[in-house]
Specification:
seven-stranded mixed β-sheet; 12 helices; Aspartate Aminotransferase, domain 1; Aspartate Aminotransferase, domain 2
């Protein structure tokens, strides 16, 4: 590789580990990627199969049909929507388009890993603001803003803490930002919160707010990689300039459209997640493992120390239960556990009970 070197910033990116993959043997339960344990809606599988017959053709370049469906369901102007290969790609577009060398990309202490990766890949400087007891601190974010802050990322609910802040706090943050900064409210888990619009009303009301959403969580399409963003028309125009013309495949577009129109299935998934999340949090607490009230499809189980969390992770792995270590998020004494189906929740709770009872 003589003379061939990466752009500055790239080598500071730690290669992504964990999440997908892993052993999917017969008795293995994967609770590490916040996937929907009920799977995709049947309507989406049918739409995908129908679209597959046309796979010799390039897909839509403007995603008009999917944008129209999203617009109808959420009451948003389709002209102000953009679709990407997961919301990860939308985050990447935002950094590419708005942050370069010398610019700062700000996010909370336990913020989602893609904010840092995308900021560094764009040559910008990631900046972290402290949280208060694993909850986003708006004052700390405002204090951390500087002349070159271009983007402020905030997941609400947040990953991996599961906590969220109120709409008044989001508005206060948007109002307090310097002129050159765009607030990005990442709503990957917004659908799990009944009656919450993910920040859409704030985007409609203010020019300096953008919202991202995904089909990977509640809609059960993580493997297809579809996400979307909502922002002011000028921001969408800028992002479309960095978007490749055929970024989403036709089967993925068709499945996502079917999934978002299947309101009954989405509601069933939301209700079932809330039921099992409450059950799991209570069961773990009874075994001496507390968690913050989660608003998402996972809980952050807190152990006494990083050593205990690691030992618990190893204990679970031996029993075919794959959960997520979150030391990379600055939470080494915790494990993030996706809310699985009833059987998976019982298995993981029983195993943690056995671990805490000294059966290790
Ligand atoms: N934001 C947050 C907070 C997430 O947890 C995730 C998925 N782990 C994403 C964005 C990206 O999701 P996707 O690219 O699958 O849409």
């Amino acid at each position: 590789m003589a003379g061939i070197t990466a752009q500055p910033g790239i080598m500071q990116i730690a290669p992504y580990v964990g999440g997908a993959g892993g052993d999917r043997g017969a008795n293995v339960v994967k609770l590490s990627s916040n996937e929907n344990p009920l799977g995709p809606p049947a309507s989406a599988v049918e739409a995908l199969q129908a679209a597959a017959g046309e796979m010799h053709r390039y897909p839509s370049t403007d995603h008009a049909s999917l944008r129209a469906a999203i617009g109808e369901v959420h009451g948003l102007d389709p002209e102000r929507l953009i679709c990407g290969v997961g919301s990860d790609e939308i985050i990447t577009f935002l950094c590419q388009a708005f942050a370069g060398p010398g610019d700062e990309v700000l996010y909370p202490e336990h913020g989602f890993l893609m904010y840092k990766i995308s900021a560094l890949a764009a040559g910008a400087t990631p900046v972290v603001a402290p949280e208060r007891d694993r909850v986003v601190d708006v004052d700390a974010l405002l204090e951390a803003c500087a002349e070159r802050t271009r983007l402020v990322f905030l997941a609400n609910p947040a990953n991996p803490t599961g906590t969220m802040i109120g709409e008044g706090e989001l508005a206060r943050l948007a109002e307090g930002l310097p002129d050159q900064a765009l607030l990005v409210i990442d709503g990957a888990y917004a659908e799990y919160v009944e009656g919450y619009d993910g920040g859409a009303a704030l985007v409609t009301a203010r020019d300096n707010v953008f919202m991202t959403r995904t089909f990977s969580k509640l809609y059960g399409l993580g493997g297809l990689r579809v996400g979307w963003g909502y922002g002011k028309a000028e921001v969408i125009d800028i992002l479309n300039r960095v978007r490749g013309p055929f970024n989403l495949s036709a089967p993925a577009l068709a499945a996502a459209e079917a999934a978002i129109r299947d309101r009954a299935y989405a509601e069933r998934c939301r209700v079932e997640n809330a039921r099992m999340r409450t059950w799991l949090a209570r069961a773990l607490a009874e075994h001496g493992v507390p968690s913050d009230t989660s608003c998402a499809n996972f809980i952050l189980a807190r152990f006494a120390s990083a050593d205990q969390a690691q030992a618990a992770d190893a204990f679970l792995q031996e029993r075919g239960l794959i959960v997520r270590q979150v030391g990379g998020y600055g939470l080494p004494a915790a494990l993030r556990i996706t809310v699985g189906d009833e059987e998976a929740c019982i298995r993981v709770a029983d195993a943690i009970g056995a671990f805490m009872g000294g059966a290790a």
